Amino acid sequence: MLEAINKKELNFIQVLSMAITLFMQNKKGILMIVVMLFFPISILNVLILENMSNSAMAVYGMMQSGMFGGTPESGEALLQFFKMHGLQMAVFVFLEPVGIISVAKLVKSSLVKETVPLSQILGEAVNCLGGLILTGIPYLLLSFGGMMAFVLPGVYLLFIWTFYVYAIGLSGKKGWKALEYSRILVKGRFWKTAGSILIIALVGFSWNWILEGVYLLLPAHIGTDIFYNTLTYIVYSFAFTAMTILFLNREAVVLGKVHTATEGPMEENKEHTED
Q1: Given Cys at both, which of 12, 16, 126, 230 links 42, Cβ 3.0 to 4.6 Å?
Q2: Residue 211 lies in a domain
Q3: What's the CA angle centered on 181, arms 178 and 184, to 5 degrees?
């Protein structure tokens, strides 16, 4: 697989095929990452969503009764909703990527046949938090701000910056350099990248539909919500595996980085890799 990643640009079928193999090879490590990182994030997500739902219902009830805007309670409910929404975005941009980087590092170590303890992988991923915050702030403001204002520019930025988390975790970039690194990997391959991401997402959604069917059969309870949310991260981990393969392949094809089992990434072309 490593030779294929280094040699030529992979199509989506090759990426998915490699992702299935690597996902199965590393399933124990991925499950540990889900339990140690994504499970706490799932608890946080469910609590935030529950608070958002309660705040939204309170605001809706006040609007229906004609009391909205006329009482301090309505302002507090609206403020609580936006606070929870801000926390949700912070989890998505700052905390979830720590888990993504953990999966990416695990997959890469498997590809290059390096034995790296899971504790080291998790520690290195957590150490990326500063870079994630430094990069996530402009990413959040520009991409989601663009979507709120004009939609299409925001969507465009989401696609060209799709590799920024992997650039932080696997290539040591941070801040604007991580966003620029991702842009270089996507340049000239925008539609191919968008298509690959959509196909990977569709595969994940198809698995999620099965999980959702099971979820609907379970009793309504916060524990059920946490359990379902945690299971979805196992599905997402397959997508993270596929994106890791795509990222490493783009590094090899676009930047000339050859990933080897003994010496790590070697640069053949330094044109776009300045720190």
Answers
A1: 230
A2: yes
A3: 155
Amino acid at 211: L
Task: List the one residue out of 108, 114, 96, 101 whose CA is nearest residue 18.
Answer: 108
End-to-end CA distance of the chain: 29
- Please, are residues 68 and 88 in contact by the beta-carbon 8 Å criterion? no
Amino acid present at 193: T
- Cβ-count burial of 251 within 10 angstroms (0-12 exposed, 13-18 middle, 19+ buried)? buried
Neighbours of 207 (CB within 10 A): 16
In a domain, 94, yes or no: yes
Where on the phi/psi map is residue 69: left (φ > 0), alpha (ψ -120 to 50), or beta? Answer: left
**DSSP assignment of 143-192, as one string?**
IIHHHHHTSHHHHHHHHHTTTHHHHHHHH---THHHHHHHHHHHTT-HHH
Task: Determine the Cα–Cα distance for residues 68 and 164; give it in Å rounded to an integer.
Answer: 42
Q: How far apart are CA 268 and CA 220, in angstroms?
A: 56
State how far the alpha carbon of 160 is from the alpha carbons of 156, 178, 185, 202, in Å.
6, 11, 8, 19
In a domain, 262, yes or no: no
Residue 137 lies in a domain: yes
> In the chain, which ranges are E strands?
257-260, 264-267
Q: Give the domain extent around 22.
A: 2-256
pLDDT tens digit sequence for 21-60? 999 999 999 999 999 999 999 999 999 988 888 777 776 6
User: Whats the size of the chain, residue-wise?
Assistant: 275
pTM equals 0.87
Specify the number of domains making up the chain.
Answer: 1
Q: Are 265 and 259 in contact (CB under 8 A)?
A: yes
